[in-house]
Write a structure and sequence with these properties.
The structure is a single chain. This protein has helices at 5-30, 36-59, 96-105, and strands at 74-77, 82-86, 118-130, 133-145, 151-154. By secondary structure, it is of the alpha+beta class. It folds into two domains: 5-59; 74-154, no CATH class. β1 (74-77) and β2 (82-86) form a beta hairpin. α1 runs antiparallel to α2. The two termini are 33 Å apart.
């Protein structure tokens, strides 16, 4: 798991500022300053911001890139075992496999309802048949095992 160094540094500095504000808040309460309750709000917000930066830095995972793949939007996801991405009209046939593989690699497993952990990813394009009549065409399909992380291109 890679952590973002900028967010880690920001979280550390915000933590130091939160600690300094906590000391200032305690001094404010002991000396009965008029701004002591405002200091409580500023201190708690700074500590919360510090913890948020640190949590996001640790949990951040960059998106996977596959050579020859094109970034495509996901147009359907049933939340269980099927994801469909839309291919642009000018997508070259040699990019079908890498593109569907990239979409499959970028799926996150948390919250999916499938019991086996297998998700099928399809790359499709809508082609016109006649005026007012369109037909979806599956260009490529892959399956991803969310437990092991394996991606298999299907024929």
């Amino acid at each position: 798991m890679r952590a973002d160094p900028l967010l880690l540094t920001a979280g550390e500095w915000l933590g130091i500022a939160g600690a300094a504000l906590l000391v200032l808040t305690l001094v404010g309460f002991l000396l009965r300053w008029g701004i002591r309750f405002r200091l409580v709000g500023v201190t708690s917000f700074t500590v919360l911001l510090s913890l948020s930066c640190l949590a996001f830095a640790v949990s951040y995972a960059p998106r996977a890139k596959v050579d020859g793949a094109v970034s495509v939007p996901v147009v359907y996801d049933n939340g269980s075992d099927l994801v469909i991405a839309a291919a642009p009209a000018d997508l070259a046939p040699e990019a079908f496999g890498p593109t569907v593989q990239q979409v499959a690699l970028n799926l996150r497993g948390g919250g999916r309802k499938g019991d086996q952990g297998i998700v099928y990813v399809r790359l499709r394009r809508v082609e016109a048949q006649a005026p007012g009549l369109d037909r979806p065409v599956i260009l490529a399909e892959a399956s991803r095992n969310l437990i092991s992380g394996d991606v298999v291109l299907l024929p």
